[in-house]
């Protein structure tokens, strides 16, 4: 049974000109099969005593082989469900020069044009987050999912705007 305790994760979107570096998730013993084929930012769980910024830098180095120095905090996504899916995601952006990412066992790192983001398979709320990024708006999404991880409700807490309400 899920205890509902939230786990913290840092995600970092690398931006180079008109592209973002994302991971197309492949099969991995550490990932749920639900993630396979989805395009997601680089990131992972915070280690004990690690700040969200430290975690973002570490994850980018581990997954992409790139050292970042400049991070801009962009938002938080709070995800709540009765399934084993309860997270607090710290979202960062780092503007970088183009580089060829290393291979990773997390999936495939791919530079994606910003105008193609909407067409990619990714979680519904991620597409909303990218719209906020493109408009240079900070966000705090408070999301609720059902036991099958379908998004039921999303509210952007800074503006109070309801993004999704399927309750």
Fold blueprint:
Layout: E1 7-16, E2 19-25, E3 39-40, E4 42-45, H1 52-64, E5 72-80, E6 87-95, E7 107-113, H2 124-134, E8 139-145, E9 151-156, E10 161-165
Parallel strand pairs: 1-6, 5-8
Antiparallel strand pairs: 1-2, 1-4, 2-3, 2-7, 5-6, 8-9, 9-10
What's the order of the H and E elements?
EEEEHEEEHEEE
Shape: globular
**Which class do the helix and strand fractions yield?**
mainly beta
Radius of gyration: 15 Å
Instruction: Specify the CATH class.
Output: Alpha Beta
Number of strands: 10
Q: Give the full name of the CATH homologous superfamily.
A: Nucleoside Triphosphate Pyrophosphohydrolase
Sheet with most strands:
10 strands, mixed
Low-confidence stretches: 29-33
Count up the helices: 2
Examine the secondary-structure arrangement and name the CATH architecture. Alpha-Beta Complex
* Content of β-strand: 35-45%
Mean pLDDT: 91
* Euclidean distance between termini CA atoms: 23 Å
